[in-house]
Design goal:
The complex is a heterodimer of chains A (122) and B (143). With 122 residues, chain A is α+β, with helices and mostly antiparallel strands. Chain A has helices spanning 19-22, 43-58, 94-107; strands spanning 2-4, 67-72, 82-87, 116-121. A four-stranded mixed β-sheet of chain A has the order 1-2-3-4. In chain A, helix 3 (94-107) links the parallel strand 3 and strand 4 (116-121). In chain A, helix 2 (43-58) packs across helix 3 (94-107). The longest helix of chain A is centred in the middle third of the chain and has 16 residues, at 43-58. Chain A is globular. The two termini of chain A are 18 Å apart. With 143 residues, chain B is an all-alpha fold. Chain B has one domain. Chain B is built from seven helices and no strands. The longest helix of chain B is centred in the middle third of the chain and has 25 residues, at 81-105. Chain B is globular. Classes of the chains: A alpha+beta (122), B mainly alpha (143). The A-B interface holds A 1, 19, 71, 73-75, 83, 85, 87, 94-95, 98-99, 102-103, 106, 112-114, 117-119, 121-122 and B 65, 68-69, 72-73, 78, 84-85, 87-88, 90-92, 94-95, 98, 101, 105-106, 109, 118, 121-122, 125, 129.
């Protein structure tokens, strides 16, 4: 597991996230802090992270305030499946975020899958 | 079923509460993952249309990977509320699967209490979501 060095802030927000809400017109895009992993995200990985960052921003949160980990999914060394685990802290409705981010991914032409995705955790 | 996902999750919570070492952390992670898996499996099985299994079937990919794939690729239209729920469950179940693989197979990797807590919360949310809005119930509402 490769940790990306970002500040970890515990936040408590009531989120009202729905796929429809996520599809609202953008009010300015803030991609969040650039990950400082030894391995730079690929374009596709960055695009998924940007979708997550935008969702967080719409709810008054920031990706740079979260702990983000780039996780290789499989046990095999040659398994290139990756997910970004975004820890938003206690008190945030992680299910709502995990449901809402899909619409933002799809509207950007991204297909979340076991091969590449983001996941919000507390 | 003689035991449900909630009972398995409660078992995981008991292990976690008494956990005082890495072996216990690993055990709780594994147990709570299976609670989430069974909840998600039952939820998916009750959908009016199953998700796409992918090029590799359960015999090759395994039931766990196959279920994650099916949840990620719902056989429902996007207008159906379970479409969005399915993908959310997919990414959360997949996260639980990752932690469970670490806990059960990677004895060379440290597992701590924080990871155990993360796994428990993740599984709890999955089990609650599957119980709070069963796919059959959604089907009835939309018909």
């Amino acid at each position: 597991m490769m940790e990306i060095a970002l500040d970890y802030a515990r936040t408590a927000h009531a989120l009202h996230t729905t796929p429809q809400h996520a599809l609202l017109p953008e009010g300015g895009r803030a991609p969040g802090a650039a990950p400082e992993d030894a391995r730079c995200p690929t374009d596709a990985e960055a695009a998924h992270l940007n979708a997550a960052a935008e969702l967080l921003q719409r709810h008054g949160l920031s990706l740079s305030a979260c702990s983000v980990s780039r996780v290789r999914q499989g046990l095999d060394v040659d398994d290139d499946a990756v997910s970004y685990v975004i820890r938003v802290g206690a008190g945030v409705d992680i299910y709502a975020l995990n449901e809402a981010v899909t619409a933002l991914q799809l509207v950007r032409g991204l297909s979340p899958s076991a091969h590449l995705d983001v996941v919000f955790q507390s | 079923m003689s035991v449900d996902a909630g009972a398995v999750l409660r078992c995981a919570a008991v292990i976690a509460e008494a956990a005082h070492g890495e072996a216990n952390f690993r055990s709780a992670i594994s147990r709570c993952y299976f609670a989430a898996f069974h909840a998600a499996y039952a939820w998916h099985a009750a959908l009016p249309t199953p998700g796409y299994r992918g090029p590799r079937g359960p015999r090759e990919a395994g039931r766990h990977e196959t279920l994650v794939h099916q949840l990620y690729h719902p056989g429902l239209p996007a207008a159906h509320p379970s479409y969005w729920r399915s993908i959310a469950l997919a990414r959360m179940l997949n996260r639980g699967r990752q932690l469970r693989l670490l806990a059960d197979y990677r004895t060379d990797v440290d597992i701590d209490r924080t990871q155990m807590a993360e796994a428990l919360v993740n599984s709890l949310v999955i089990v609650r979501q599957c119980a709070s809005q069963p796919s059959q119930e959604v089907q009835c509402v939309t018909l």
